[in-house]
Amino acid sequence: MKLVHAADLHLDSPLTGLEAYEGAPVEAIRSATRRAFQNLVSLCLEEEVALLLLAGDIYDGNWKDYSTGLFFAAELSRLATAGIDVVMVRGNHDAASNITRHLSLPKHVIELSTTRAETRVFEDRGVAVHGQSFRDRSVQVDLAANYPAPVPGLFNVGLLHTSLTGREGHHDYAPCSLETLRARGYDYWALGHVHRREIVSEAPYIVYPGNLQGRHHQETGPKGATVITVSDGRVASVEARVLDVFRFGSADVDVTDAASPDDVVDLARAALDREVAEAEGRPLGARVILRGATRAHAALFAEPERWENQIRLEATAEHGAELWIERVRFATSLPLAAGDLEARDDAVGQVIRAIRASRNETGDERLVRIFDELKKKLPLEVRDGPDPILLDDPRFIEALFDDVERMLVPGLASAGADE
Amino acid sequence: MRLRVLDLLAFGPFTGTRLELGQVPGAVDIVYGPNEAGKSTALRAVSGLLFGIPEKTVDAHTHARGDLRIGGVIERPSGERLEFVRRKARKETLSDRSGKPFDDALLFEALRGISAEFFSAMFGLDHERLRSGAEAMLEGKGNVGESLFAAGAGATTIHRLRERLSREAEMLYTPRGRDKRLVVRAIADVREARERVSNASVSASAYLEQVRERERVLGDQAALRARHAAYVKEQSKLQRVLQAKPDVSRRADILGKLAAHGDVVILPEDATSRRVAAVRKRHDVTRNRERLAEDMERLVAARRELTVKESLIAIDDAVVKDLDDRRSRFGPAQVDLPKRRAEYDALEAQLRIARRAFDPGGDARKPTPVRLGPSQMAKVRRLVTDHAEVHGELGRLRRDLAREDAKRAQLAARLATSVGADRAAAVRVALERAAELVVPSPETVVRRGSEQQKLAQQTDVLAEAKARLEEKRRDARQKIDALERAGAIPTEDELGALRNQRDALWGTLRTATVPFDAATSKAFEDLVAAADDVSDRLRREADRVARLSALLSEERAHEERLAALGVEAESLAERARRSDAEWVALFDGAGFRPLSPEEMRPWVARFGELLDVDATRARLAEEIRGAEARRAEWQRNWSESIESLGVSGGASPDEAMVVLDGLSEYARLVEQSESLQRRIDAMRRDSDEFVNVVAGLVGAHLPELGAFAPAEAASRFVQARDAAVGAEKERTRLGREIDERRARLAKLEIAEADADDDVAALLRAARVNDLDELEAVERKSVLERELRTELGRVEARLLELCEGASLDDLVGDAAAIDLDVERNRLDELRTAIDELTEELQRGAARLATIEAGVSRLERPEAADAANDLSACVARLKRHTRDYLRLKLASALLDREVERYRQENQGPLVSRAGELLPTLTLGRYAGLTVDFGSDDDEAALYAVRQDGARVPVEGLSDGARDQLYLALRLASIERYLLRNEPMPVVLDDILVHSDEDRTRAALGVLGELATKTQVLLFTHHAHVVEAARAVLGPAGAVEHVLSRGEIQRDVVRPREPRRNGLDG
Description:
The complex is a heterodimer. Chain A is an alpha/beta fold. Helix content of chain A is 32%, strand content 22%. In chain A, the strands form three sheets. Chain A has a six-stranded mixed beta sheet, covered by helices on one side. Chain A has a six-stranded mixed beta sheet with strand order 5-6-7-8-10-9, with no helix packed on it. A three-stranded parallel beta sheet of chain A has the order 13-14-15. Chain B is α/β, with parallel strands linked by helices.
């Protein structure tokens, strides 16, 4: 008998950070989360599974488009004819969702109660599923503590949306400890909420399947669901199945040895080739991060836009619709110890010292006050998603100063060279 | 660090040229190179060595790009030296002297991390850069901060950098910009995209409302459709009944008529046509039978009238044919016979005349005396032809023989005379029997000739060799004689003889028992003395002895050779004799002694010809004998042949031919006359037979023709017989016709009976007795049938309208209705149905709209819009990030320029102010800083001696150069205060200065050289001169450069060594 465990579908959540440019594979991201979900349903049909377990966050909490719910229900109805039941709990996003409240689900789809933990028994398949949905978006109590006792003789699954004891990059909801989960005596804990796949424990199995489809450059690598094979009432195997239709990747390129921007482009292209290969034929959204103290630094920073375009151009030429360069991040430096420059008793040294000093400025002295006016005009969206612009965040300001230093130093060092 | 060695291993025009620098501490290194000498190259080499050779170098002309090499030694303040070689490449450009890789990092460390750009900006100054620095100051309108900052950073374009940053930032965003900058546009895009997401999003309630609306409309439609169906049903029933009404009436009418008819015999539909056909058939058959009977009677009458003469018919056709043939020949023969008789008489006359030609007295009717057969005639003719050939051949052969005889006589005469008179007689005799003569063949003669010739040649050669040898022997003899005449020459033989004498005597003496006397003693002594003397002389005159000996042996050799030659000559002579004898023997059979082979060669050839002539003669003689025999044979044949002609044997061929021709003609005429006689006889016999035949036939069959001539009788007889045969044929034909008509008549009688039966059957079927009654029954039957058919059609139509109900119900309904009322009801129904139909269509359209709306709501348009929004946000973030970075950089730079000014203005300006009077030769006293008219930023002013302040843009070009130089030197000095020294490289910065200013500047550079290494590259000899004058040997080291070479010298006043200068 097989079960499929998935979570964090975030249907119709957009793929972010992808700025359209000439040659970018715009079509490849269209309906990506939907297509990934279709892959999930097809997987259930192909594997002829007994149950599909959804551990919450079907929708984005603030997403209002009802067609998303209709699509979800329509896709699930494909499972009805095959006799595959679906058991799901609401996650924090679902609890906040307007769609959840109105959507009536097909009969073979069972949404567990929001008021108390309950058990659904599938005698014919020898499975009992325990779980509780989020009542509202911020559940701060340990839901697992009140989960029912296992049903003897059946394969017991706990369905739970939780951050456990806390996971980086994720809000803390329904906190609980591994001990609590283990103490329940279930055979398998199907968790949701954390977008990175993780097998937290193997005895019993406590698994985050990760989200179905990466949506920005921090959700990199293969995404999909987990197939559990149960044999004699025990877990025989737990395997990840890749279902995503668009892949996010990161080409972290060490360009220390590059003598010129052309070398940098070559190195970036080689790194991108590797990333594209890893995406196994899926379109890839890749961030290129150029690092290292390189002699090409000055030339790169003299025309960053030109070299970013050059990398995009070559990527498009080589991989076409398979590759979307999400962003090229220039994190190179001059091939010098920073201290050397700072120690220099000349104008260059002085500017670098000034940049460093300016970071720590406070109050009215702060140079970044010049951006106050702009800050008011920027829409809220810039504060969310990948690379948020957070002018009030000291870490953001620090990174900004780093960039300015990278940009200005070669400019200053080459100032006076015939242009 | 200091540059100690610049090694131009392969760079520009240089190959392995070394520049040793910094050898005198604190001295300026002046590298002097006139134009084309490679000064600029050397200058580029400094930068190339330290920072790498640029990708697009201009110095790869003498050496290939990949071969460019610059070596160098640099010295760090610690005294550590780095020695390395730079090559032109993209990677790993450094190596040590031995070619092993040299660690980049060591050099990088020694350069304290400064870049090529910084180095050239801070420590490399040429006139261009001095100028552009000054102009940058002008652009900045003397902005002291920027000027100082630029000087401090070694930058001429700090102004441009600030401008660039500011410009790029403003392209992205300006707080008060009226036009939409990129950031502002991106913000608008985000708002718009957000709006699109919102618009495309469908709320649950909106969707469900649509769904409910769809349900409601569906319900309404169902109700409408039910009503519509009921109306349509009623309408349909009404229409049916109304439609049935006329047929129902018609049905009642027909049923009434049928009832009135009562019982009627129903005949088949074709009853009338069958009756008509039967009656017509009966009529036709009867008429045909009557016509046929008449016809037959006519034929019988015709046959009866025919008469046929039977005896004529019995005569065989062949007999009649023969009679007719004879009759046709009889007429012409009667005409032809007299003509042939006349012809025969004419031939008889010709015969008589022909007979007379060769038999004058003969009777023409007697048999001819000679009867020659054709073969005999032919033989006589052939003999006549052969006559000429036989006689002609004999004459020709005899002439040929005579010619050959003459030819032989001539040849024999020449053969006899050509061997000389003495032999002529013998030869003539011999030739008489030429065929028997044994004479060698021409080949033998030639071979013998060449053999004898060769022997003669060999003899000559031998004689010549002998003469030469004798000459040599004589020569040797003369020389020997000369030697001997010059004094006796001792010989070994002589010595041997003396010694033998001496030894003999000594042997005697020794064995003597008696003492020997004085004479003997004397003799022995003399012998001893003589032998010794000879021996001495042999030794003394060894040369002469040797020559003599050589000559003697030579003479001996000659003599031996001569002897050998003599033997050889004798042998040759013997061979010649033998050859000669053999030659003569060859002619033994000829009967005469031959001349030499050479002389005999033509003779022998001619003799051959003579033999050929003899052979020809023999052949001709033989042929003549043959010809004579053939002539005799002809003569014999001829005599025999003409005998048979009756002509005397001596007659000539021509005479014989006349007789022969006459005989031929006569024979031909006899033949012709006999043939004609036979023909006349045959004609007469035919006529007689014809008359007999006619008489026989006529007498037997038609005696009445006996009165006619035979030809006429025969003709009539044949006609009578033809007529009898024709009558017989006609009689036969008529018999056949009558039989055929009789058969047809029998058939027609049967058909007549059948027709009567058909009519009778029809009458029986209609139960009537005659045809008139039958026609009446037929008319009633047709009427009844038509009514019943119509009733069927009417009821079929009504049944169609029943639609399941019974015919009686329908008939009942139709009977019951009121037409006007029902028509009104039908109109009402029609209107109601139309209205309902329209309403249903409106409902369907409404449903389609709702469905479209629902399916649109089900599409992921909001999700697509959300992706667009994300893309817009990404762009806005990028523009914003770029803006933040540029703007912050720009702001920082502005602030730092100002800050640097504040911090460095004092020391820098005061130091530059100190240098300026020196550099301007006191024209300007110093520098000061003040705020300009716009009070924005501080500006720099030069202070004249009189205290007047001159803004930067007010300075002359030269003064501005000096001011910038002062600032640059001041900033270098400041740099050196706190940093490791770097070599300052100056390239003809003094080009626009006059002599005095140059000297002043050199003084300042001399001072700088005490703090750091100063390299001054110059094209100008006057600069070198000035340096010598100002700095002296301790202050300047001169390196003179000429195309690829360098001379180093400490500058000496007035007397520079200028090796290699070729200007």
